[in-house]
């Protein structure tokens, strides 16, 4: 198979003539060049059923595929376009199809593409009547993204699948019949007729060139607003598309042709002629070409108008090319080809001008109109967009601000809005590619001479690539989401070589208009003039009737002295809009009758009932968030209940009785290797059982919102359980209060949760009317501590309690000359505790004694101060702080996290404890506030410098924070998990850990040490620790002969050391074991090759084949993925041919990521599949537990 998708023409066909059974495939006839570009349906295509051939066994399905799949023996190509996790192209061998494989059948068997059956004499003409585009939408919905039609004896194909589109867009030439208007314009031309003007236009349509037009766009934008006001005052409604087209045509005449106000006659003649030709051109494309050549009145007028357009352009181009002209016509006339030095001829300039005018003004007008319409439909999107405009343009509500080019580039959310608008309403609804002769792609697929019709509209709404495709969601184009997109699933400006050069020009013009419009007006749909959809959805018959309400004051308002910035945040819980002229918050969101009824029901429930705060948590993060929410609920006098998901199940669901009252709930949960936390398993099993039993109303009493907590470094199972809860509860009758809100510990998790809480409390206070008079500042104020600490006299010494695991040995594994440390820890397993090789030990670590003393000093209390904790609310005193006296030293050493980066809630609590005139208050507000500036400052000065609470307080020598304020908001110490590096098969009463100790110097010069790793390194023989065994997915294969490949670096070796001890036992038991290849990485053989003696011994005894990568022992760094590439054939054989297992353990950020990429590359190379298909195959192997990842961030 060729490595690139290059095209080989008729000679390649002749070489294979004896082997090929010719069929017609992927033919889009020249007929389609006579069909206009129009809108398609809003309705998303549904999955078409896979047809079963009568000669195929029940387990083998054929979804027909029109491309040749050439093999030496007969194969059938299978395509399932609507199952994302499936490989795109699979092959079922002919011997598996008994009715096909016999001596009477041809060597080549290709199943026909799906489409409606032919009718005698007229083929599919009845299926295309009365409107081709309506029929096309219906047929793609019925038959899928590839539809075969026949019309006038010729086959036609409709295509909306990115996999094939990506291949077709790589062709430079469109190969279309010559057109009547601007046939040599850059949009239609091919070959040198295209490449030559393309090079010239590329030198014109640069960002720098577009920036020079921005001042002109400012003036034209004001004219656009004036036209809106004029039409709205006259008609009380604005037909937005038509008005935008008029304004854009005026604008493009000025920018493109240089026709200013002094050329009114010429501009009028040009506009009148151009608009008539545009409309008639579309109508001519709907007719048979023969009718367009007959001597009828409209044909005669058409050619006369063409001559008239040519005359007008001659007159326009005859004007002097003075130096002060920077319109596009002047730029094109002056430009030279950078390769040949040639200039465009007058004819070529005319064709390029017409092309720019046709494509430019329609594209800009439609994009602008639909963007304004879609934004008006979603208050949440409108609020975010206006907030960004205020922030970037620094609006004061007094002066109209004009954006410069750099500010326009900074409007990132507006970019997302415009991209989503182009996805839902692409101005270019279709694209056509043609082939002049029979063509083979990759020596596999053959095309007859044809035109291939690509439906951009249906591609942009293909549910395989766009979940919920009819929903307007700008966040689809966030960078992390775009990274997952197929290259050809979004093609509003074409693709590959033929990508539209003017897209930056169009986007810049629209962004200027939106910036000016939203400063002066609010756009709303008109209730008296509804939008009525017709066959052409891009141009509804009613247009887009809109109301434009002039603002009493400009967007933004002058801040009062000392007033904080407006919070910049997403509103994940409810779609709300803040009134800027008042302190209170309100929403003007329209609701349906059912939504209003549900809201009123929730309001009554919350007045009489309670707010359920449910969490699922192993390490404690979600529990901390839950109790933070409960503290704020208590402050706002909202009745609440805090419990684990399993506790909720036991109280309300376990009995199976129907819950009578409605429950409003916030679910905060994490996931662990794709599984629920330990205290959420019962709740998860209940959901699964309800699904299995088809109990569609089991959760009808739930009104819920989910906040998921995870780390995106675990990209395969990231937030798997929160997503499962989000998707499953509605199937059981529950009502979502908001879309799923992800929290990523690898980013700013706390800020995301704060944003959720702010909208949550707005919802309760304002939407449900529980606190109607409350001001916004009180709503967003973080929850304080509910604890009060009283210093008491106490003489009894605190007993040093230890855990059940007793340490028997601690030794250093790295060489003396190494600057780093890895310790081997052996401990006795308590009676009744069981573990397996590969499991984790979750330990409860203590802060370093020196750090505890520093913290006590910063607080102004001796470490042996005795305290008693009392709750100031109905929240209980937490378990880590018993009712009786407890020493401050113990609280800070064992219970609270004082070593990690100080959180924003802690900074906020410290800030609130200071008086307004305190010299440090302003500084701290700069980190803990909710403005974008505060978020940026926190990231820059606190996070990047690794500042913990001890260092922060030490830098504020005059600040003494009350214990009541601080101890109740500090996060609790989280448990840490370590892979067990032994097997009970060797010695069941012993367990070992291999721990890399964390030491480094922060940017401020502070010596930082990890809590758990250094705590374990400080242990002595006889020491005791609190710990428990956690089951891991890292399991040795059940069959002893299964071949194994393990990849790791550093202490990632731990579980595989346990595997090797397991193998030793299995070999003694069975006499032989399967192959075991270990790819191990470390820095240097002399310094950190841990367990070297053991590994070499295992290899000498035939239990292991070792592949070691020493990254620092040579000039060029060598890592484990490089060693994998050296043995790629071995890895491919184990995984693809021998049903082997592949394990990875180590750093998720670098090593594990690079190993996964290398493994997918190997799979693609040796399976003959694409990189995208290899990703899918990789996920399948993880789901089948043939690939197992145990990585950390």
Automatic annotation (TrEMBL):
In the N-terminal section; belongs to the cytochrome P450 family. The keyword Oxidoreductase applies. Keywords: FAD, Flavoprotein, FMN, Heme, Iron, Metal-binding, NADP, Oxidoreductase. One of its GO terms (cellular component) is cytosol. The keyword Oxidoreductase applies. Heme binds at residue 500. Residues 800-1044 form the FAD-binding FR-type domain. GO terms for molecular function: flavin adenine dinucleotide binding; FMN binding; heme binding; iron ion binding; monooxygenase activity; NADPH-hemoprotein reductase activity; oxidoreductase activity, acting on paired donors, with incorporation or reduction of molecular oxygen. It comes from Planoprotostelium fungivorum. This is NADPH--hemoprotein reductase. Pfam families: FAD_binding_1 (PF00667), Flavodoxin_1 (PF00258), NAD_binding_1 (PF00175), p450 (PF00067). Its cofactor is heme; FAD; FMN. Residues 611-761 form the Flavodoxin-like domain. Its EC number is 1.6.2.4.
């Amino acid at each position: 198979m060729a490595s690139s998708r290059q095209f080989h023409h008729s000679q390649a066909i002749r070489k294979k003539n004896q082997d090929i059974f010719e069929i017609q495939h992927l033919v889009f006839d020249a007929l389609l060049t006579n069909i206009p570009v129009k809108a398609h349906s809003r309705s998303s295509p549904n999955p078409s059923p896979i047809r079963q051939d009568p000669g195929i066994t029940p387990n083998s399905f054929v979804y027909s595929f029109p491309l040749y799949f050439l093999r030496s023996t007969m194969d059938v190509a299978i395509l399932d376009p609507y199952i994302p996790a499936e490989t795109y192209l699979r092959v079922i061998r002919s011997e598996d199809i008994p009715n096909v494989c016999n001596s009477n059948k041809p060597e080549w068997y290709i199943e026909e593409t799906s489409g409606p059956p032919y009718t005698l004499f007229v083929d599919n003409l009845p299926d295309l009547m009365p409107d081709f585009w309506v029929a096309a939408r219906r047929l793609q919905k019925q038959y899928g993204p590839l539809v075969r039609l026949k019309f006038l004896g010729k086959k036609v194909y409709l295509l909306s699948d990115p996999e094939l589109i990506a291949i077709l867009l790589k062709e430079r030439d469109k190969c279309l019949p010559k057109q009547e208007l601007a046939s040599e314009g850059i949009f239609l031309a091919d070959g040198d007729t295209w490449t030559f003007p393309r090079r010239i236009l590329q030198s014109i349509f640069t960002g720098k060139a577009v920036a020079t037009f921005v001042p002109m766009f400012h003036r034209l934008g004001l004219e656009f607003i004036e036209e809106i006001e004029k039409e709205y005052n006259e008609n009380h409604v604005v037909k937005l598309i038509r008005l935008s087209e008029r304004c854009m045509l005026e604008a493009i005449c000025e920018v493109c042709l240089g026709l200013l106000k002094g050329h009114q006659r010429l501009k009028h003649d040009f506009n009148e002629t151009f608009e008539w030709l545009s409309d008639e051109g579309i109508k001519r494309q709907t007719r048979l070409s023969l009718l367009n050549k007959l001597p009828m009145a409209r044909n005669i007028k058409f050619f006369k108008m063409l001559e008239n357009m040519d005359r007008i352009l001659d007159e326009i181009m005859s004007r002097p090319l003075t130096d002060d002209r920077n319109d596009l016509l002047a730029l094109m006339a002056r430009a030279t080809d950078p390769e040949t030095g040639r200039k465009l001829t007058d004819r070529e300039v005319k064709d390029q001008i017409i092309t720019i005018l046709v494509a430019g003004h329609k594209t800009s007008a439609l994009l602008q109109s639909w963007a304004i319409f879609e934004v008006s439909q979603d208050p949440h999107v409108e609020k975010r967009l206006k907030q960004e405009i205020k922030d970037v343009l620094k609006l004061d509500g007094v002066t109209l601000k004009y954006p410069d080019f750099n500010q326009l580039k900074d409007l990132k959310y507006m970019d997302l809005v415009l991209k989503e608008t182009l996805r839902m309403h692409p101005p270019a609804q279709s694209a056509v590619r043609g082939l002049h002769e029979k063509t083979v792609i990759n020596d596999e697929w053959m095309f007859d001479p044809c035109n291939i019709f690509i439906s951009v509209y249906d591609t942009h709404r293909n549910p395989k690539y766009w979940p919920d495709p009819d929903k307007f969601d700008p966040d689809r184009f966030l960078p992390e989401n775009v990274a997952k997109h197929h290259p050809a699933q979004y093609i509003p400006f074409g693709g590959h070589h033929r990508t539209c050069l003017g897209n930056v020009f169009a986007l810049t013009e629209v962004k200027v208009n939106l910036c000016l419009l939203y400063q002066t007006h609010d756009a709303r749909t008109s209730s008296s003039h509804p939008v009525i959809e017709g066959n052409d959805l891009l141009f509804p018959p009613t247009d887009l009737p809109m109301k434009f309400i002039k603002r009493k004051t400009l967007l933004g308002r002058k801040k009062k002295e000392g007033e904080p910035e407006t919070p910049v945040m997403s509103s994940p819980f409810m779609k709300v809009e803040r009134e800027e002229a008042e302190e209170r918050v309100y929403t003007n969101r329209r609701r349906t009758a059912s939504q209003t009824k549900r809201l009123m029901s929730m309001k009554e429930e919350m007045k009489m009932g309670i707010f359920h705060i449910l969490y699922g948590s192993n390490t404690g993060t979600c529990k901390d968030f839950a109790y933070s929410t409960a503290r704020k609920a208590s402050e706002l006098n909202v009745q609440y209940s805090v419990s684990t998901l399993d506790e909720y199940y036991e109280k309300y669901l376990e009995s199976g009785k129907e819950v009578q009252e409605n429950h409003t709930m916030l679910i905060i949960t994490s996931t662990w290797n794709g599984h629920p936390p330990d205290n959420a398993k019962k709740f998860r099993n209940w959901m699964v059982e309800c699904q299995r039993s088809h109990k569609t109303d089991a959760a009808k009493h739930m009104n819920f919102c989910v906040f998921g907590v995870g780390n995106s470094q675990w990209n395969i199972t990231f937030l798997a359980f929160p997503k499962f809860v989000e998707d499953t509860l509605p199937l059981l009758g529950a009502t979502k209060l908001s879309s799923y809100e992800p929290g990523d510990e690898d980013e700013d998790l706390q800020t995301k949760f704060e944003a959720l809480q702010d909208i949550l409390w707005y919802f309760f206070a304002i939407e449900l009317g529980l606190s109607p008079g409350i001001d916004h500042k009180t709503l967003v104020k973080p929850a304080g501590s509910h604890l009060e600490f009283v210093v008491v006299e106490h003489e009894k010494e605190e007993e040093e309690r230890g855990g059940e695991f007793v340490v028997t040995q601690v030794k250093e594994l790295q060489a003396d000359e190494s600057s780093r440390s890895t310790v081997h820890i052996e401990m006795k397993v308590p009676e009744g505790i069981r573990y397996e090789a590969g499991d984790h030990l979750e330990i409860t670590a203590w802060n370093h004694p020196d750090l505890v003393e520093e913290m006590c000093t910063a607080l102004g209390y001796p470490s042996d101060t005795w305290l008693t904790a009392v709750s100031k609310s109905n929240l209980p005193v937490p378990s880590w702080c018993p009712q009786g006296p407890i020493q401050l030293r113990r609280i800070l050493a064992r219970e609270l996290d004082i070593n990690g980066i100080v959180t924003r809630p802690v900074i906020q609590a410290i800030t609130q404890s200071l008086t307004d005139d305190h010299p440090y208050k302003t500084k701290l507000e700069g980190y803990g506030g909710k403005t974008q500036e505060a978020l940026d400052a926190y990231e820059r000065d606190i996070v990047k410098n690794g500042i913990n609470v001890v260092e922060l307080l030490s830098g504020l020598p005059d600040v003494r924070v009350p214990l009541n304020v601080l101890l109740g908001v500090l996060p609790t110490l989280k448990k840490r998990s370590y892979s067990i590096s032994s097997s009970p098969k060797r010695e069941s009463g012993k367990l070992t850990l291999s721990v890399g100790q964390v030491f480094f110097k922060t940017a401020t010069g502070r010596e930082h040490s990890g809590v758990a790793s250094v705590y374990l390194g400080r242990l002595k023989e006889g020491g005791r620790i609190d710990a428990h065994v956690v089951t891991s997915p890292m399991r040795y294969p059940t069959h002893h002969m299964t071949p194994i490949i393990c990849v790791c670096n550093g202490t990632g070796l731990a579980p595989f050391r346990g595997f090797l001890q397991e193998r030793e036992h299995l070999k003694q038991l069975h006499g032989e074991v399967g192959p075991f290849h270990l790819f191990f990485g470390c820095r240097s053989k002399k310094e950190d090759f841990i367990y070297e003696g053991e590994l070499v011994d295992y290899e000498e005894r035939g239990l292991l084949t070792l592949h070691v990568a020493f990254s620092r022992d040579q000039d060029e760094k060598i890592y484990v993925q490089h060693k994998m590439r050296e043995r790629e054939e071995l890895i491919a054989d184990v995984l693809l041919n021998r049903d082997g297992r592949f394990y990875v353990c180590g750093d998720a950020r670098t090593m594990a990521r690079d190993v996964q990429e290398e493994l997918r590359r190997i799979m693609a190379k040796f399976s003959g599949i694409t990189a995208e298909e290899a990703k899918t195959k990789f996920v399948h192997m993880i789901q089948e537990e043939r690939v197992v990842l145990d990585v950390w961030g």
